[in-house]
């Protein structure tokens, strides 16, 4: 006997059916509603030097979700850079890197392993957690 896995995104649809109407008012089709729904959230933008590259990463995640047969929900939160970084981006980058356990700024490649893990079946039993891939920034 084969049992088909029911994804959390489909369970939520049964108790929060108004979400279907909202999605249909955007770029979702009826077929998309039955797919696994994956949230791809990013703070990409030009307002902060350390998040500028995240748009490319979110686009790659979006492609990966489509390739795996899912439907990505793309959300972008804005980030605001503090005055020090706005005034002196290079110096602020050095200051931020010095405050991390790993004394360098992150790159998109530093996040790749976390994204691959979270998109894999190895993370199926992880819910409601924050995975900080920040070079030790949260330790300080």
UniProtKB/TrEMBL annotation:
Keywords: 2Fe-2S, Amino-acid biosynthesis, Branched-chain amino acid biosynthesis, Iron, Iron-sulfur, Metal-binding
Keyword Transferase: no
Pfam families: adh_short_C2
Keyword Zinc-finger: no
Name this protein carries in UniProt: SDR family oxidoreductase
Taxonomic lineage from the root: Bacteria, Bacillati, Bacillota, Bacilli, Bacillales
């Amino acid at each position: 006997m084969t049992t088909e896995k029911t994804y959390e995104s489909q369970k939520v649809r049964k108790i929060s059916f108004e979400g279907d109407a909202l999605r249909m008012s955007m770029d979702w089709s009826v077929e998309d509603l039955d797919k696994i729904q994956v949230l791809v959230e990013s703070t990409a933008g030009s307002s902060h030097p350390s998040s500028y590259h995240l748009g490319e990463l979110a686009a790659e995640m979006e492609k990966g979700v489509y390739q795996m047969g899912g439907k990505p929900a793309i959300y972008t939160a804005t980030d605001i850079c503090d005055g020090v970084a706005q005034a002196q981006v290079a110096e602020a980058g050095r200051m931020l890197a010095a405050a991390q356990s790993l004394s360098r700024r992150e790159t998109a490649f530093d996040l790749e392993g976390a994204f691959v893990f979270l998109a894999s079946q190895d993370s199926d039993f992880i819910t409601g957690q924050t995975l900080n891939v920040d070079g030790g920034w949260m330790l300080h």
